[in-house]
Amino acid sequence: MDIVIAAEKPSIAGILSKHLKYRVRPQEIRVHANPGETGSFLINWRLNRYVLSPDGQVALRAIRQ
Questions:
Q1: What is the value of pTM for the model shown?
Q2: pLDDT tens readout for residues 5-40
Q3: Nearest of 27, 31, 62 to residue 44 by alpha carbon
Q4: Fewer CB within 10 Å, N- or C-terminus of the chain?
Q5: Nearest 5 degrees, angle CA 19-CA 25-CA 18?
Q6: How many whole angstroms separate alpha carbon 11 and alpha carbon 61?
Q7: What is the DSSP letter of 12?
Q8: Within its chain, how far is the Cα of 52 from the centroid?
């Protein structure tokens, strides 16, 4: 089982899949704790970055320049 902090990578991939309406496999994502918000995660998938909030909402993360 692949565990990231307190969440399972397959669960995070499932939430991202529902948000994108596209199948995302757990091995395709990288997940990190979000230092800017307790309980949320940063998700890297392909060239995009997403934020998964503690309430399960996913948002595309803007890239800082």
A1: 0.82
A2: 457 899 999 999 999 999 999 999 999 988 888 888
A3: 31
A4: C
A5: 15
A6: 19
A7: H
A8: 5
